[in-house]
Structure formats: C-alpha cells, structure tokens
Specification:
The structure is a single chain. With 137 residues, the protein is mainly alpha-helical. The protein has 7 helices and 5 strands, in the order βααβααβααβαβ. It has a single domain (4-135), classed as 5'-nuclease (Rossmann fold). It is 61% helix and 10% strand.
C-alpha cells in the first residue's frame, strides 16, 4: 500500500540519530510500494537538508548523498495539489489551524484516501480529527 509522505519522516531517513523503528519500516515500505507527495515536498525536504548543512550538522557532500537517497524513493508527485490550495487546502488549514504547507499533505491524504506518514504533532492531530490513518513515530 502506498501512503502520503511528509518531509518530516523523509528527513529522518537521512539522519541516524532521528531514525526510529517506525520510520525505518516506512522507508522499506516506500521502497517497495512508492509514496505520493505534494509538489511542495522537494522544496520543503531540500530546505531541511540545507538548514542541516548550514548548522554544520552535515557537509555539502553528505547533503548530496542524502538527496540521491531520497530521489531513489519511488515518488509520485501529485499534480492536483496546487489546484486545490485556494479551496480545499485553505479550508483544512483554517479548520485545523495548520500551515498551508501541512494542510497540503492532509488534503492529499484525504483525497487519495491514503495513510499519512508524518512526525508533525499538529498535522497528526488534524489527520486524526479528519479520520486519516497516521503513520510514523
């Protein structure tokens, strides 16, 4: 089964001290079945890696290796995400007091009727409220 992948989970795959058994099993599942992400996912994920590099947590060469690792994941980019930003996504953000970025993941999971893999507590809470299965932790 595929799932919607939030960058918070994907970034744990890059840092040994952030990995958990749950996120490692999601990595394996992503490798087997692929994942679905909104179009903002690459920008958000790369930003996390760049911030880690600027904070001297990783080097530029490590960042590049991590990007290769993430790009090997079977990613399906959802092309409808941007079409729904002003409507469904905005409503979810308002109703659940989320950022629009986080609401984009929630909207995608709702529309595709897929579990959502996230470590973000606000997003987890909103997904539970919207009756979306949440993976991670």
């Amino acid at each position: 089964m595929s799932f919607v992948l939030d960058s918070s989970v994907a970034l744990t795959w890059c840092f040994d001290d952030e990995k958990t058994p749950a996120t490692e099993s999601l990595f394996d599942l992503a490798g087997e079945n692929g994942v679905i992400v909104p179009l903002l996912w690459p920008a958000e994920t790369l930003n996390g890696l760049l911030m880690a590099e600027r904070r001297k947590r990783i080097s530029a060469s490590q960042r590049k290796k991590m990007i290769e690792l993430l790009c090997q994941t079977l990613l399906e980019f959802d092309l409808e995400t941007n079409d729904r930003i002003w409507t469904e996504t905005a409503q979810l953000a308002e109703r659940n007091r989320l950022t629009v970025y986080d609401a984009a993941y929630l909207e995608l999971a709702l529309r595709r009727q897929l579990p959502l893999a996230t470590l973000d507590e606000d997003l987890r809470r909103a997904a539970n409220k919207e009756k979306i299965e949440v993976w991670g932790k």
